Amino acid sequence: MMLSKTIQDALNEQIKHELYSSHLYLSMSAYCESINLPGFAHWMRMQSEEERGHALKIFDYINDRGGRVTLLSIDQPPSEFESPLHVFEQALEHERKVTALINDLYGLAHKENDYATQALLQWFVTEQVEEENTASQIVEELKMVGSQGTALFMLDRQLGSRMPEAEEE
Ligand code: FEO
Fold first, then answer.
1. Is the CB of 95 under 6 A from ligand 1?
2. Closest ligand 1 atom to the C-alpha of 94?
3. How many domains would you assign to the chain?
4. In a domain, 168, yes or no
5. pLDDT tens per residue, the chain (169 residues)?
6. What is the pTM of this model?
7. What residue numbers bound the domain in which 142 lies?
8. Is residue 101 in some structural domain?
9. How far is the CA of 86 from the centre of ligand 1 (A)?
């Protein structure tokens, strides 16, 4: 069964949101570089790559279903942040918005009786739980770190060890 136009449009919108996420995290990475936190910068760069992976997952899915991908324009992300804590608070807030978008999309696929799209979105529902959890853990760690330079340095080292994610299928 071909994708309905409604679902195809909604999925193309979601590609845009995932690519915006990728853009946002790359911008956060640039900010972290600018304040000499290479580990934070690395972590955000990995996160940016992961978001691109999310966009491509939907891209491939639309094609597999015989639909047509249309890339939409992406907004400019913010480039200035107040602190590493502010960066991760913004990231967490952003992920909560993405979760709401995924939930809406799931609701739409349900309404349209599109079971294959619901199966795709199930992966994203699970992924969002993980993403929100990770961002909120780092927010909590940064609150504990406060203005202690040594603790921030240690956290930077820890975030710097993030490995690229293996392709999940
Ligand atoms: Fe693709 Fe972080 O949601």
1. yes
2. 2
3. 1
4. no
5. 789 999 999 999 999 999 999 999 999 999 999 999 999 999 999 999 999 999 999 999 999 999 999 999 999 999 999 999 999 999 999 999 999 999 999 999 999 999 999 999 999 999 999 999 999 999 999 999 988 999 999 999 999 999 987 755 4
6. 0.95
7. 5-74+81-160
8. yes
9. 18
21 lines ligand 1 (CB under 6 A): yes
* Distance (Å, whole) CA 85 – CA 75: 23
Ligand 1 atom closest to the Cα of residue 128 is 3
Please tell me the distance between residue 36's alpha carbon and the centre of ligand 1 in angstroms. Answer: 26
Cα 97 to ligand 1 centre (Å): 10
State the first-to-last Cα distance of the chain, in angstroms, to the nearest integer. 22
Distance 131 CA to ligand 1 centre (A): 7
In a domain, 105, yes or no: yes
Q: Please indicate, yes or no, if residue 165 is contained in any of the structural domains.
A: no
Q: Match 């961002």 to its residue by tokens.
A: 135
- Ligand 1 contact via 114 beta carbon (within 6 Å): no
Contact predicate 30/147, CB 8 Å = no
Provide the CATH number for the domain around residue 114: 1.20.1260.10
How far, in Å, are 4, 23, 100, 151 from residue 15 at the CA level?
Answer: 17, 12, 15, 37
Q: Which residues contact 118 (CB under 8 A, 6 or more apart)?
A: 106, 109, 110
